[in-house]
Write a structure and sequence with these properties.
By secondary structure, the chain is α/β, with parallel strands linked by helices. The chain folds into two domains: about 10-155 and about 395-545, FAD/NAD(P)-binding domain; about 160-220 and about 340-390, 3-Layer(bba) Sandwich (FAD/NAD(P)-binding domain), CATH 3.50.50.60. It is built from 17 helices and 21 strands. The chain has helices at about 30-40, 55-60, 80-85, 95-110, 200-205, 235-240, 245-250, 270-285, 290, 300-315, 325-330, 345-350, 395-400, 410-420, 450-470, 480-495, 525-535, and strands spanning about 20-25, 45, 115, 120-125, 130-135, 140-150, 170-175, 190-195, 215-220, 225, 345, 355-360, 365-370, 375, 380, 385-390, 405, 425-430, 430-435, 475-480, 545. The strands form five sheets. Strands 1, 2, 3, 4, 5, 6, 17, 18 and 19 form a nine-stranded mixed beta sheet that branches. Strand 8 (about 190-195), helix 5 and strand 9 form a beta-alpha-beta unit. Helix 1 (about 30-40) packs parallel to helix 15 (about 450-470) and helix 15 packs parallel to helix 17. Bound molecules: NADP nicotinamide-adenine-dinucleotide phosphate. NADP nicotinamide-adenine-dinucleotide phosphate (NAP) binds near residues 196, 340, 391 and 445.
């Protein structure tokens, strides 16, 4: 690593720091961030904890891992030429292909020289006098940077230590977000899966035909949509390549950053037959359009939500052979779409198999992990392998696990321990020159196609750093009032939705002691982008530059 700063007197807008920017994380946003910084003539270094790049698509290599966004919108938009040199094999691609794509991008853009793999950032300390950040890693690196951009991912801090006795288990124990690169053998084994979120569902449907016995420990049932996946062929590739310019615009102008939007008008304006037809058509499409591209009322109007919920329940019931199983698998306590809706393939049918058992732990929680398996209030389940698909400390976890100290030594953990707030999900009062992607109160994994919002956030951050540099300014920090104003705006929108009535990681309620607040901004991707653009165009009102 080269920390040699050649210039003695920094150019206006620059400090004496080793780097203009340190980026944390080489996932989808971190790589694009590096690309943009380099193109802007800035000296940057990326620290990546993994021994490969890809972030989510590096760590989550569990069986069945696949993206729920259609591949043709889950990609970078910065180069038409590069876009034309890549083809997606399926409408919804699996993890290995996504990991290959991300590596292809790094190769094509020559990004490797500025990425230090296998290095976890452990500490960040702001130096008010030097106007820079001191960055520490678990490999002993000590560098300074004028700016730090966190690209640590919204869903990257896995919840792994959940039950007493985990270390005692004599079988194989895995968390889906720390899946090994070496092959895992399922054949001939009694396997238990804890968790039925988007991840657990993909694991269950994939390994059910392989294992001798599968026990699924379900605390909360999920509404699911059948994924309509297919292989792309040569004419499809040509057509998708031809749509580059249009799609690049389109994804930034829809509610959730996809190639679909709420375009059917109001649910109330349709007759019952028209509503049914629309829902059938969306259902057949087999994408998240049924959820975030159907009718906006689904997320805010109890009656509309009840109608759509009844439709989904009917579709699910038709696929489950035994009524007593259907009663456990189909949610009754919350409305459709108020938690993340997973797409699935033969998930419900997996429970029709003789070797699969649903263990309903809603009334009899897991008490402990024993040497032999899982013990609940109802008894012990003996297993050879246990898979935790138990999710993440979303949005805040990746950052509070780093010792981040802003002005006057105040830690981010303390700040968010009191109240989870940000300025537009991009910056924090008290933490100058610190930028974030995928952070609380910005559109993110909930209600945003991640590649769309991550690229938009990286663009804003890069343009802001260049804005400062071009005007000879060294620091930028939002005021406390700006944070408060954004929080109020966020809360007003969040509290008008049905989302805040249902427990899930969306609200942080999956983590003991975490403040209950909708973590993602749900005012829409297009509306959010416009507000970010307006702030920039108006010279950053609510942000102090020095
Ligand atoms: P998740 O949605 O938070 O699900 C975690 C599961 O573990 C839930 O079923 C939860 O039950 C259960 N669980 C947690 N702690 C437990 C405990 N102590 N005892 C029993 N059960 C427990 O996490 P995830 O499935 O990893 O998904 C997280 C997000 O990642 C998704 O919502 C999605 O945004 C993203 N993701 C996307 C894809 C894709 O695009 N295809 C795939 C996977 C993940 P409760 O519900 O009762 O808390």
């Amino acid at each position: 690593m080269n920390t040699n700063n050649a210039s003695h007197v920094p150019a206006p807008g620059r400090t004496h720091a080793d780097f203009d920017v340190v980026v944390i994380g080489a996932g989808l946003s971190g790589l694009y961030q590096l690309y943009r910084l380099r193109r802007s003539g800035l000296k940057a270094l990326v620290f990546e904890a993994g021994d490969g790049i890809g972030g989510t698509w590096f760590w989550n290599r569990y069986p069945g891992a696949r993206v729920d966004s259609q591949s043709h919108v889950y990609q970078y938009w910065f180069s038409k030429e590069i876009h034309e040199d890549w083809t997606w094999s399926e409408r919804f691609c699996a993890q290995p292909e996504l990991e290959r794509y991300i590596n292809f991008i790094a190769d094509r853009c020559g990004l490797w020289d500025d990425i230090q793999l296998g290095t976890r950032v452990t500490g960040l300390r702001y130096d008010d006098n030097g106007r820079c950040w001191h960055v520490e890693t678990d490999r002993g690196d000590r560098v300074t940077a004028q700016f730090v951009v966190s690209c640590t991912g919204m869903l990257s801090a896995p919840l792994t230590d959940l039950f007493p006795g985990q270390k005692r288990f004599r079988g194989e124990l895995y968390h889906t977000a720390r899946w090994p690169k070496t092959p895992v053998v399922f054949e001939g084994k009694r396997v238990g899966v804890v968790g039925t979120g988007a991840t657990g569902i993909q694991v269950i449907q994939t390994i059910a035909p392989l294992v001798t016995q599968l026990k699924v420990f379900q605390r909360t049932p999920q509404y699911t949509i059948q994924m309509n996946n297919w292989r792309w062929n040569e004419p499809d590739h040509k057509q998708l390549h031809a749509r580059f310019d249009e799609l690049k615009q389109r994804v930034h102008n829809t509610f959730a950053g996809f190639d679909f939007d709420f375009e059917r008008g109001s649910y109330h304006a349709l007759t019952p037959a028209q509503r049914r037809d629309a829902l059938e058509e969306l259902w057949h499409d087999g994408t998240l359009a049924f959820w975030v591209g159907s009718f906006p009322e689904v997320l805010v109007d109890e009656n509309v939500n009840a109608d759509v919920t009844a439709f989904v329940r009917e579709k699910m019931r038709a696929r489950i052979e035994r009524p007593e199983l259907a009663a456990k698998l189909i949610p009754t306590r919350y409305g459709f779409g108020t938690r993340r809706v997973p797409l699935e393939t033969h998930y419900l049918e997996a429970y029709n198999r003789d070797n699969v058992e649903l263990v309903d732990i809603s009334q009899t929680p897991i008490r402990e992990i024993t040497e032999k398996g899982v013990r609940t209030a109802a008894g012990e389940y003996e297993l050879d392998m246990l898979i935790f698909a138990t999710g993440f400390d979303a949005a805040t976890g990746a950052l509070t696990r780093i010792d981040i100290r802003g002005r006057e030594g105040r830690t981010l953990k303390e700040k968010w321990g009191e109240d989870i707030r940000t300025a537009m999900g991009l910056q924090l009062h008290g933490f100058p020159n610190f930028f974030m992607t995928g952070a609380p109160l910005a559109p993110s994994a909930a209600f945003c196609n991640m590649t769309t919002c991550l690229q938009q956030q990286v663009d804003w951050i890069t343009d802001t750093i260049c804005y400062l540099r071009d005007r000879g300014r060294q620091t930028i920090e939002p005021t406390a009032e700006k944070e408060e104003q954004w929080l109020q705006h966020h809360e007003e929108i969040a509290n008008a939705t049905l989302l805040v009535k249902t427990d899930s990681w969306y609200l942080g309620s999956n983590v003991k002691g975490k403040q209950r607040r909708l973590l993602s901004y749900v005012g829409g991707v297009a509306a959010y982008r416009q507000q970010c653009d307006q702030v920039m165009a108006a010279g950053y009102p609510g942000f102090v530059m020095a």
